[in-house]
Design brief:
Blueprint (H helix, E strand, L loop, with lengths): L1 H4 L6 H10 L3 E4 H15 L1 H13 L3 E4 L3 H10 L6 H12 L9 H11 L2
Length: 117
């Protein structure tokens, strides 16, 4: 998501192409928080306000939530060195029977391995 909203991001053009192809993006609530945090540090609160307005008023983004304890349990059950936010992406792809929208090769590799178990 950061790549989509920050033109200077190395993956911005790839993110735009993915965004233009899809009708709906399911975004874990924790990913929204992380995205807004990164954007705040990189571009400031004014940019955060613009991005939040776009996300919250768009029919393309659907923010999804899940019981906190289940997500933390899943994170711990992976028994791997992985970010909590990457775990959110993987967890919600399984919960919603969809694929992750990520350029992170480590995340995608782990997702494929778990999916094939």
């Amino acid at each position: 998501m950061v790549a989509l909203f920050l033109p200077e991001d190395i993956n911005h053009e790839k993110a735009k192409k993915v965004f233009e192809k899809e009708d709906l993006f399911l975004i874990p609530e924790d990913m929204v928080k992380e995205t807004l945090t990164v954007i705040c540090y990189k571009k400031g609160i004014k940019c955060v306000k613009e991005v939040w307005k776009l996300i919250s008023n768009s029919d393309v983004f659907e923010i999804i939530t899940e019981e906190y304890k289940k997500l933390v349990s899943f994170y711990i059950s992976l028994n791997r060195k992985i970010s909590y936010f990457d775990t959110c992406v993987i967890y919600f792809t399984f919960l919603n029977d969809c694929e992750p929208c990520s350029f992170d090769k480590k995340l995608l590799s782990l997702w494929k391995g778990l999916r094939n178990q």
